[in-house]
Automatic annotation (TrEMBL):
Ranges where the Sushi domain occurs: 66-140, 251-301, 314-381, 391-455, 457-525
Localization per Swiss-Prot or TrEMBL: Virion
SMART domains reported for this sequence: CCP
S-S bonds: C111-C138, C272-C299
Name the UniProt record assigns to this protein: Sushi domain-containing protein
This protein's record includes keyword Disulfide bond: yes
Predominant localisation class: virion
Length: 525
């Protein structure tokens, strides 16, 4: 039995289908399912839903992935002393619930100079039981006799170094941690720790510390550009590829000053739509450190033939009308439209398929044999089914600056063709509130109002950089684009050692608002 529920599961979708419709409500074959982010397939069932001798197998199901409270992590970071983040983290969230961090996420901390961890691991992880691993506790080192000592301040026996406004600045980077003693208005002793903006990495031969050593500063850290891939190349592939859709799983990182480049380590996951199979590169397309995209996938119709045209026979008369048949369509063809637009080589072929619930009568492949086409098949309705002529929703509308994140197969239910398409905006674009919904439906060829993807507002990167004074970066979820950081991104800070937040200033969780402005910055003094 086949109906509207066959291709649907809660919190999931069907990226691939191979069904033969035996009537308007029966079919044979299989359906493959996948889950939306935040959910995973039940391993005991698998991802295939198979019709076996008239009986469907157990239907796959998407189970919630465990998650931990983001508020709990933020509270720990805000109240911890002697602790800093190392910049190593992977915090995964659901778009629909940013208060939860998914299991498997982690963030790595370190105790600052003069402090020792006496608590849990410095690698804090979210377990499958939806709880954070025990948090670390950084306490001051103790000397003999029980008196507290600390090495957070530099040794003042050495000479001071010159200090001005350039000391705490590096190109494409920012101060991550500071331990300085000011011996005058323009001299200081101690050290400065730097980190780099997205798209840049510290020169490993120099490191991240800038140290005053007996009156002389060490070599200053520098941020080098990381490799990147062409964004237009990826967009061209997506625009021209057939039978493919994006799954919604992606991480495309860009530089604010150059949105034409996607940074190395970025990725986007595709899937072949119903009736297509990948014969090319991996469906997980990644940008390598060499600045090149991995080989793109190539989704071809499942029925595509491998007939090689022969040039030894006479050509057949050809016109584009041969690619259409009533209640069906040409799914693939070889050797046509050559050597001219009105001829096909001997051995050329056209493969046809019927739209549900029509059945193909005759050979599905029409072949040119020495100047003569073989018989063209026809698509006939089941004798018990009456179908009114209507568009079958096979045309997918185009939405500028977007890609298809989900597409259901064309279904024929109650004498109506139905289909749904989910659009997602390209990085740097967002749906406008006055446009249609991102999920649009087609009924007998008529689509819902389409969404519109417009340029996303962005917040100034330089403004953020200038505000990072006497603070340490804990973690961030910033995406570069449109000359800055895109709206919705955030950065979590903590005051540097020896500094406290002014209660009248902004929160340590700084957010890029939908207006393209930053929330109020914190002041640590």
């Amino acid at each position: 039995a086949f109906d509207g529920t066959t291709l649907n599961i809660m919190n999931g979708y069907s990226p691939n289908v191979s069904l033969s419709y035996t009537s308007s409500n029966t079919a044979t074959g299989w359906v493959q399912f996948a889950c939306v982010p935040g959910y995973a397939l039940d391993a005991a069932v698998g991802n295939l839903y198979i019709c076996n001798n008239g009986v469907w197998s157990t239907k796959p199901r998407c189970l919630t992935i465990g998650g931990c409270s983001f508020l709990t992590l933020q509270s720990f970071v805000s109240n911890a002393t002697g602790l800093m983040a190392t910049g190593q983290s992977q915090l995964m969230q659901l778009a629909q619930n940013t208060s939860v961090i998914l299991s498997g996420s982690y963030i790595v901390f370190a105790c600052i100079t003069g402090y020792t961890n006496t608590g849990g691991s410095l690698n804090v992880t979210c377990s499958s039981s939806s709880s954070w691993s025990p948090f670390p506790t950084c306490v001051l080192n103790t000397g003999g006799g029980g008196s507290l000592t600390t090495t957070t301040m530099p040794n003042n026996n050495g000479l001071s170094c010159a200090f001005d406004t350039t000391t705490l600045n590096i190109m494409n980077g920012y101060v991550f941690n500071v331990s300085l003693t000011y011996t005058s208005s323009n001299t200081a002793t101690g050290w400065v720790q730097f980190a780099c903006l997205p798209g840049y990495a510290l020169d490993s031969t120099v490191g991240n510390l800038y140290v005053c050593n007996n009156g002389v500063w060490s070599t200053k850290p520098r941020c080098l550009t990381t490799g990147g891939c062409s964004f237009s190349t990826l967009q061209s592939f997506v625009s021209n590829a057939t039978g493919i859709m994006a799954t919604g799983q992606s991480q495309l990182m860009q530089l604010p000053q150059n949105t034409s480049v996607i940074l190395s380590g970025s990725y986007i996951v595709f899937a072949c739509i119903t009736g297509y199979t990948n014969t090319g590169g991996n469906l997980n397309v990644t940008c390598s450190s060499s600045g090149a995209w991995s080989q793109y996938p190539n989704c071809v119709p499942n029925t595509q033939t491998t007939i090689v045209p022969s040039n030894s026979g006479a050509t057949c008369t050809y016109s584009s009308s041969l690619l259409s048949i009533a209640n069906g369509y040409a799914s693939s063809w070889t050797g046509v439209m050559t050597p001219t637009a009105i001829q096909a080589l001997s051995g050329a072929s056209i493969t046809y398929m019927c739209t549900p619930p029509y059945n193909l009568v005759g050979n599905s492949v029409m072949t040119c044999n020495n100047g003569v086409w073989s018989a063209q098949p026809v698509c006939l309705a089941n004798s018990a089914t009456t179908v009114k002529h209507s568009s079958n929703c096979d045309y997918v509308p185009n939405v500028a600056n977007s890609y298809i994140s989900m597409a259901t197969p064309i279904q024929f239910i109650n004498n109506q063709y139905q289909r749904k398409i989910q659009f997602a905006c390209n990085p740097g674009y967002a749906f406008t509130s006055t446009s249609g919904q991102s999920l649009v439906s087609c009924l007998n060829g008529v689509w819902d109002p389409l969404p519109v993807c417009a340029l996303s507002p962005s917040c100034s990167a330089s403004q953020l950089q200038s505000a990072l004074v006497n603070v340490q970066l804990v973690l961030n979820s910033l995406q570069a684009g449109n000359g800055g950081f895109l709206a919705g991104g955030w950065i979590l800070l903590q005051c540097a050692s020896g500094f406290t937040r002014n209660p009248l200033s902004g929160s340590l969780n700084v957010t890029c608002l939908s207006t393209g402005t930053w929330s109020v910055f914190p002041v640590c003094s």
